Amino acid sequence: xxxTEYVSDYYYEDESCNNQQSSSFFSDGSTFLTALYxxxxxxxxxxNWIVLWVLLRHTKKRTMTDVFLLNLxxxxxxxxxxxxxxxxxxxxxxxxxxxxxxxxxxxxSGTFFVTLMxxxxxxxxxxxxxxxxxxxxxxxxxxxxxxWVISVIMATPQVVFAQLEEGExxxxxxCHPVYPEESQQWWKMRRNFTENAVALFVCLxxxxxxxxxxxxxxxxxxxxxxxxxxxxxxTVVCLFVLCWVPYNIVVFLQTLQLMDVLNTCDxxxxxxxxxxxxxxxxxxxxxxxxxxxxxxxxxxxKTLTKVLSKYFHWNIHIRGPSPSHTTDDETSNTAV
Length: 336
What we know:
Helix content: 55-70%
Number of domains: 1
CATH superfamily: Rhodopsin 7-helix transmembrane proteins
Strand order of the largest sheet: 1-2
Order of helices and strands: HHHHHEEHHHHH
Strand content: under 5%
CATH architecture: Up-down Bundle
């Protein structure tokens, strides 16, 4: 890959059409796109590193929520770290397979851990008494290990088929999957369907179900934090939908293209451009997660305040309930 060939090249493979228009578009905006990917990289790296540092160094009593948040941070870091590698040239096969694996692993694990965070909040609020014994550190670690194993399994096929091939100019190399000719169509359909199934047909419905149930419970509660919790719930769901649904819609359109439904050159170029923009929006989610899952949470803000006061002598006062009226649920890493 050169600087004008980004992650979208990994998904777009249509040799029947001339992509000169799309390629020139990205050539004109290559400097802007390069700068944008580096901005996302630094924001994701700094934000997630702060959360990781606080969780590992300054959180004494860890809960299931802390375990899920920790793994979500690691997943977002994988996505952030992969961005500079996509921007620069990849001239050897090991780096091609490495960046493919990091990207795929970050995509699947991040989506799964966001869903686990939703399920954790659902159990903590809707089934608070019944789930008290199940929401333990041990079960949190076990669930996280299972998620990472599933993510590795789902990412493996793309790593196996990742290859370097010469571009149209016969000078640059492109990193993308090269499937066996006899089963090429099947592997492409499987790749697209797997991503759609995970994000749109499994994780998103689970998130919506969990947060609808939470809203029902909160609407009947007189807790002083109810309004703040409801706002955070809408923020979590809306940002996930805004960041990932456009990407998955474009992936679905690519599936239709593989089925000869949208198999025209004009449609191919439009889908190619849409994928480039959708990926930028989706990748920005790794920068947003630290804000919506940590910086808004009461427990994390209090811990971060102590750290800043200790190391930088910053006096920051955060409004919150008095210690005598604080419960574990009220001080979890999310506001709900």
